[in-house]
Design a protein that fits this description.
The protein is globular, with a radius of gyration of 20 Å. The strands form 2 sheets. A 6-stranded mixed sheet has the order 1-2-10-7-8-9, sandwiched between helices. A 4-stranded parallel sheet has the order 5-4-3-6, sandwiched between helices. The protein contains 13 helices and 10 strands. The protein folds into 2 domains: 224 residues, Rossmann fold, CATH 3.40.50; 102 residues, Rossmann fold (3-Layer(aba) Sandwich). The chain is of the alpha/beta class. Helix 6 packs parallel to helix 8. It is 42% helix and 14% strand.
Length: 375
Amino acid sequence: MPVPQTVETPAREVRAPSDASPEAARAWVAEAVRLLEADANRSADTHLHVFPLPGSWGVDLYLKDESVHPTGSLKHRLARSLLLYGLVNGAIGPRTTLVEASSGSTAVSEAYFARMLGLPFVTVLPRSTSPEKIRLIEFYGGRCHVVDDPALASREAAVLGAQDDAYFLDQFALAERATDWRGNNNIAESVFRQLALERHPVPAWIVVGAGTGGTAATFGRYARYSRVDTRLAVVDPEGSALFPAWSSGDPTAVATSTSLIEGIGRPRVEQSFVPAVIDRMFAVPDAASIAASRLLLARTQHWAGGSTGTNLVGAFQIIAEMLAEGRTGSVVTLICDSGSRYAQTYYDDGWTAANGLDLQPHTRRIEQFLESGRW
């Protein structure tokens, strides 16, 4: 397999042993695991921000800011878990080429870790992936293999990953099992620990997007394992396969349209999607997601991507229902990545107009909700 062009090697790179003996390979894996765990020790716990809501509502909305990870997104956690999964299962060695199918953010993080371990990395990307993400992947030494049809990305990556000395990281199949949902400083454990001193320390609802399904599975399983009465709501772009699969119980559901929101929504139901741990799902229009992400910037100065906007739309609907029922409590959702990756798309009025997106009705609806509490 062709080796991608790399940038300057970081000081902590694991050097491949000069021989291929089992002992040398085992020692290389041990050092690779140490480096990945050291990265987690430095960076895994991220901030939990408060979104401004009227105090009289008795409902608190928190935003877990995953954009502050070293690679700038929620996928930093997933990428580390996927590499650890491959290492401890004996699938990744000192000369393995890592392969992934991604809409960008997972590949950015995997390229970062691949460079750390001195391994070549190739990702299959839809042509619609933002240029900012492509630049980041290439900055970390990854090579981008572009496909016109997003539905073919996983299939193409599987072919590349089946070649000699290659390994398909396969986030859409392995995300839910690569992450330790019982704890080990996963995102769910981090959220519950950070809420411990708040007025509603056990969240009534967690709201996350449906991409690989790994984050939803982690939160849903952790809540059950911890024996708390926290419900899980999952948001999905309109037209994605996951919402109709959950609502109908049909695992063969397919997408009816392609979303412009990168990182969430799927053309088919992936193996990592675990519908049984989900209590509610919402299908969110792309224009609403972008309107919410822009409003987040205006109200809090947190600059986030479109999937964060999708999360907010779901959280606002949950909060409106709580208010209508006279309930108080806390709701937690995620800032998935930085809006800097979408300066030329979601935050560009020319781009939204060219894609036929009218943000104004959704902006008005969100602003009215923030004033009245009604959705």
